[in-house]
């Protein structure tokens, strides 16, 4: 498990060439489709590729499948996700 927090102000970040969305970026990297929200305490359907960074770690950004509610958490609301769901964003 990884404790992460949302990166606010990341909506203007465009996905890499060849991907029309961060959801598509994640699905291509993982070779599977979105299903459930990656937040371990949530059981909603994932709808966006949310930008997060680890609370305890480097300043690297990651994409994880999130529901709309979990994607709106503020920086003061860290949450746990499965390490296997993290896809690093190459800037």
How would you sum up this structure, described in words?
There is one protein chain. This protein is α+β, with helices and mostly antiparallel strands and 91 residues long. The chain has one domain (2-88). It is 14% helix and 24% strand. It has 2 helices and 5 strands, in the order βαββαββ. It has helices at 22-30, 68-71, and strands at residues 2-6, 48-54, 62-66, 79-81, 87-88. The protein has a 5-stranded antiparallel sheet with strand order 4-1-2-3-5. The N and C termini lie far apart (24 Å).
Q: Which runs of at least 5 residues are low in confidence (pLDDT < 50)? A: none
- Total helical elements: 2
| Proportion in helices | 10-25%
- Following the backbone from N to C, one meets helices and strands in this order, namely EHEEHEE
Count of DSSP strands: 5
Query: Radius of gyration over alpha carbons?
Result: 12 Å
Terminal-residue CA separation: 24 Å
**Biggest β-sheet strands, sense, barrel:** 5 strands, antiparallel
Class by SSE composition? alpha+beta
| Order of adjacent strands in the largest pleated sheet | 4-1-2-3-5
* Residue-averaged pLDDT: 91
Q: Specify the overall morphology.
A: globular
Into how many domains do the coordinates divide? 1
Beta-strand content? 15-25%
